[in-house]
Amino acid sequence: MDFKSTKGIYLQIVDNLCQQILEGQLQSGDRVASVRDLAAEFEVNHNTVMRAYTNLQESGIFDNKRGIGFFVSEKALELIKATEKANFFSQDLPDFLLKVKLLQLNSADLAELVSLIKNNDNENQ
Questions:
Q1: Which residues sit opposite 70 in a β-bridge?
Q2: Distance CA 104, CA 94 (A)
Q3: d(CA 48, CA 7)
């Protein structure tokens, strides 16, 4: 956790857990660490972790099985991808397009970027 960040600790925990789901470290149906265990791991108050888990549950990413714990929901990956895609188009892409304009990149420059993305996809398959 970055305690100097302007982003709340519980939101950093949410981001961390969503990243783990995107990377396949946590998958649908997996039981997630207990609130106390994750609080100890991140060295934060257990109420902070509980707030993150509640946020993820309300978002449909986690399911809470009372008395058993929190689990990654079946639709978690789909929900996270949709949210991340929307954030990319609303936040990251406008900055990227501005940079393209400022640097006066042309179609050849962008074709090279697309080629790099395709090569990276092929390597990861």
A1: 64
A2: 15
A3: 13
Type of residue found at 80:
I
- In whole angstroms, what is the distance from residue 114 CA to residue 105 CA? 13
Structure tokens at 74: 């079946």
SS3 8: coil
Check residue 27 and report its DSSP letter.
-
Cα–Cα distance, 80 to 19 (Å, whole number): 9
Distance from C-alpha of 98 to C-alpha of 76, rounded to nearest angstrom:
32
- In this prediction the pTM is 0.77
Per-residue pLDDT of the chain (125 residues; tens, 9 = 90+): 666 677 789 999 999 999 999 999 999 999 999 999 999 999 999 999 999 999 999 999 999 999 899 999 999 999 999 999 999 999 999 998 999 899 998 888 888 888 888 887 777 66
Alpha-carbon distance 117 to 61, whole Å?
28
| C-alpha dist (Å) from residue 32 to 49, 69, 115 | 12, 8, 37
